[in-house]
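Appendix C reproduces, verbatim, an entry submitted by the partner laboratory led by Prof. M.T., so that reviewers can inspect both the input and the predicted structure.
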Amino acid sequence: MIQMKQPEDAPHAFQTAWNNHDMQSFGALFHEDATFVNRFGHYVRGVGEIVKLHAPIHATIYSDSILENELIDVVAISDDAAVMHFWSRLAVGEAHPAGPHAVDTVILAVLTRQATEWRIKALENVTLTNPRTGEAVLRAGRDS
């Protein structure tokens, strides 16, 4: 399992679990009662539901996907709580019905510490889109 010793570990831990398509490790990043909103606005509560949301897509359309995360900032709320933002680029391959392509999102996560380990309490993922057309856009200055 991937351990998060500080909030800044979350983007890499999330990326590692995703890229290994390891739903047990992915679920372990979250508190049991965590909430998750995916990039399509689907809300689930509880680590079991978070894994249930992700397991089928990792077995099919995202089975060859690669995620690359980049920390934007961490704001401490207390010694045991923090709000974090990070960029996330999802590159999907041939397994996706639309074929290979990339999607950029920004993730907002609330993390809390229990004992010495940090876990995600809430996470929301937002796809970058053109507000006039609704088309997905990639962040400027990034390799496509």
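Residues 23 and 29 are 10 Å apart (CA to CA). Additional entries are available on request from the coordinating office.
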